[in-house]
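Supplementary material to the annual report.
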Amino acid sequence: MKKDNRVVMIGVLLSLSLIFAYIEMILPSFLPNPAFKIGLSQIPILLTLYLLDLKSATVVSTGKVLMMSLLFGYFLTYIFFVNIAGAIFSIIFIGLSQYLKFSIPMTSLMSSLGHNLGQFLVIGYTLGWNIALFYLPVIIVFSVLFGLIIGFISQSILTKIEKRI
Amino acid sequence: MNIPKITFIKMNKKEYILIAGLLILGLLSYFFMYNIEPGAMVKIEVSQKLYGTYALNKDQEILVKDSKGVILCTSEIKDGSIRVKSSTCTDKICIKEGEISSSGQTIICLPNQVVITVINEKEQIDGVLK
Amino acid sequence: MNVKKLTLIIISSIIFLSLIYFYMNRNIVVAQTQFIMNTTIEIKLFGKNIDKQKLVKTMNRAFDIMKEVEDKSTSYVEYEGNAASLNKHRGEYYMVNQDLIEQLSTSIPFYKLTSGEFNIGLYRTVNIWKNATDKNYLPSREEALNSIGNSTPDDIIVDKFNNRVKLPEDMEIDLGGVSKGYALDKVIVFLKNSNIDIALINAGGNIITLGTPVDRDYFNIAIQDPQSINKILGTVKLNNGQAIATSGSYSRYYEINGEKYSHILSGNSGYPKHLYKSVTVITNKGIISDILSTSLFLLSIENGRKLIEKLDYPVEFLYILNDDTIIKSEGFKIEYSQDNLYKDE
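Predicted assembly:
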């Protein structure tokens, strides 16, 4: 793919990711704790990973956190670091899945697990481990559930894209 | 636009085992970590420093400020449970979390680093001998 | 990816969420308070993965057992084969219920062990004090002493095999200091048979435990300050099967001319003895804790120690003396409250 095309694709997917993140923010949460999210914004990141490459996915993932923090005014505050840790761990876990040749749903699961684990580590380190530990079981179970759901959605989108071309 | 061929890897046995393992791990930790008992006290921490402890059986409003005196949030104790009434944070998740009353439950306001935890201050008294 | 798979995912996630909900709610506690045996009795049952309705049923049955024991042991309302009927049929063999037989055979030996201080044959004496309270006069020492009569609990003939009891002609019994503890033991046996692992029964001055809460290996029991209802002397940790009982001058009393007279009467004189502010006993049987707290309350500390040595039960004790000093056995581990005014010996 040409370099220009790549940049355009990243731009489109990043804005998609931002839109999804925003939608998720304004939608009422049906989960036991409103801090938990399904992670709709992970879909464009997964699309980037499979349509382009890991490097582009990293750009979209960290770009999303950066843009969101600028849009909603928490750039370089505590919550920004929590989120960026989530994004970085998520990318590390995606890389690991690529290396282990995992399927799309499994990669998505790993990504969401990494995302939550990164946030868990920062929160545990700064606010105390017992508070973070209280959420650990929830984090694991919800990562698996929502990671798989997002993974299957992404997979079906990718098959449709593949067929169209 | 040309798009590289995506190689779809099917989910295999190894992945199913991993998923099952994670779920079992999660559920097991549920099993061990939670016991639901009503709490007696509530502890408020700001940036990892204890801001104060309050009895859950006394209705009151608590104004939480940071070390510089900037108001972070207002929490309200009513009928044995605590909630965040208003907050200066960006996402307002702490308000949406609603009321908590069981020991170990927390409300975390990440942007302001406010942690509200329900505790059994000394130890729960099971009975009084008269 | 097809519709089938998606529905499968949704259904399985719903199952998982409900599983989580189930696990979060699996420790059930049911508790209720009822007024039985002249005190408020609280029964608290802890259940694991058990139907709540079942637990409530068991709890109600436990209350029924307490009521049954009350009816079978009371000296104030007549039922077939209970203590009141036995008092009416004194001087002859009378068929009584099994619960009464067991209470009698446990408590009679304590008459000798306490050199006459613990006496179950004080029904008439108690009545004199109750009357005196109503009419607001102080019974004389002679009046109290004469009400006891010449027979002693040792003269009661308990025929265990035929469920018969013969009371001496000049004695009527009052099991006030026995039946509460006995009822606790009976409820615990019932709960064990109903597969309840964890329970706490609080009968005011008597508490008995079964098992311990899920997250620790003890029950935390606060002991009320004998002189102030709103204050707590301290807390003790009760392990599985331990029973605690307290007898105090100021918890239950006859009030005559503004003076408080303890409801615990000496079996020798029929008069209250105010040797201590309160005596608390921990042992592993409800009936023993009940009898022992009363006995120790009436005995000197030295004689109390001798009595404990003669028993086959592990006993820990704590006395609060009239000058606010505390004397306790080494194994009585109490954590005093911060505003506690009493001092160790």
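The helical segments of chain A are 3-26, 42-51, 54-72, 78-99, 104-127, 129-164.
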